[in-house]
Amino acid sequence: MLTIQVKRHVQGTKYFAPWIEDHEDGSGCTFHFHWDDISDEGVALFAELFTQQARRWHPRPPGAALGRRIPIVMERRTVMEDDALVAVDDRPGYIAYTVRADLISERGADEITRSQSERSPYWERTPARYGIQHQTV
Q: What residues are paired with 30 via a beta bridge?
């Protein structure tokens, strides 16, 4: 199962743009952020958010033809409806995130979604899977 980690590098480090490190064992990747670009709360939230995305969009099988590049965007809002932290519109042709603005900087959001979009031809989208528990009475 793919797992995505998010690492916030400590205060005082020289600025770097967010980047993605693939795990050699194929288990997922780590999103690296400068401390200015993501909050502590954002680290946990985006780790879960990107892990859910990786379960829906996973690597294409070896030897499979590449797909087309899909746009991935992140809109930051100061106030979210119903006090939500994030909303995701995940379609075959794009992924659009709407997130609470204090979780990630505009620069961080732009850079990480650009990186994801560049990687998207290597992914394929799978149908949603729902875990439904059946009880007999």
A: 5, 21
d(CA 20, CA 28): 10
88 in a structural domain: yes
pTM of the model: 0.84
Q: Is residue 130 part of a domain?
A: no
Neighbours of 100 (CB within 10 A): 20
**Number of structural domains the chain divides into:** 1
Q: Cα–Cα distance between 47 and 49 in angstroms, integer?
A: 6
27-80 pLDDT per residue, tens: 889 999 999 999 999 999 999 999 888 888 888 988 999 999 999 999 999 999
CA distance 85 to 35: 19
The encoded tokens of residue 105 equal 């900087």
Among residues 33, 43, 31, 30, which one has the least CA distance to residue 10?
Answer: 33
